[in-house]
Design a protein that fits this description.
With 152 residues, the chain is of the alpha+beta class. The protein is 35% helix and 25% strand. The protein has one domain: Sulfate adenylyltransferase. Strand 3 and strand 4 form a beta hairpin. One of its GO terms (molecular function) is histidinol-phosphate transaminase activity. Pfam families: ASCH.
Length: 152
């Protein structure tokens, strides 16, 4: 099903939603279909209810604004097919080394522990910053977003 039809089906079932503002996206590596499918399924099944991104890299890309409470997202799988719609319920910015164990748990990946979260995200953010020719350290701000599935 195409994204626009999926959104319109959601709006038909939820007439209280009057906006047509949403972002359609997949999570995971750009070319990693298996990872995108896995993360989409974790979200759809309510296991992954949070994500973390690098605050400083939002400033680099003016076409990708910071997430806002109340925004809708259409989660795509590795084949760009809609799997569910989320609504952002919390957005906070904290240094990498202050991301909580609770947030790591809600990210829903692996053991859901903070140590594993820090190890995996350190590697990921270090590479993202390197791609932008910036060093990464544990004090840099991260955007911690919490969402809920509102349609599947």
């Amino acid at each position: 099903m195409d994204i626009k039809t999926y959104w319109n089906n959601f709006k038909t079932e939820h007439p209280e939603v009057t906006t047509n503002d949403y972002e359609a996206f997949s999570l995971g590596g750009e070319d990693d279909i298996e990872e995108q499918d896995s993360l989409a399924n974790l979200i759809k099944n309510g296991i992954k209810t949070a994500t973390t991104s690098a605050y400083d890299l939002y400033k680099q890309d003016e076409t990708d604004p910071l997430p806002q409470v109340g925004e809708y997202g259409i989660i795509l799988d590795g084949h760009n097919q809609p799997t569910c719609i989320t609504k952002t319920v919390v957005v906070e910015t904290v240094p990498f080394n202050q991301v909580s164990a609770e947030h790591a748990y809600h990210e829903g990946e692996g053991t859901r522990g903070l140590d594993e979260w820090r190890k995996d995200h350190w590697k990921f953010f270090k590479q993202e910053y390197a791609d932008e020719h910036h060093p990464f350290n544990e004090e840099l701000p991260c955007v911690c977003e919490v969402y809920k599935v509102v349609y599947k």
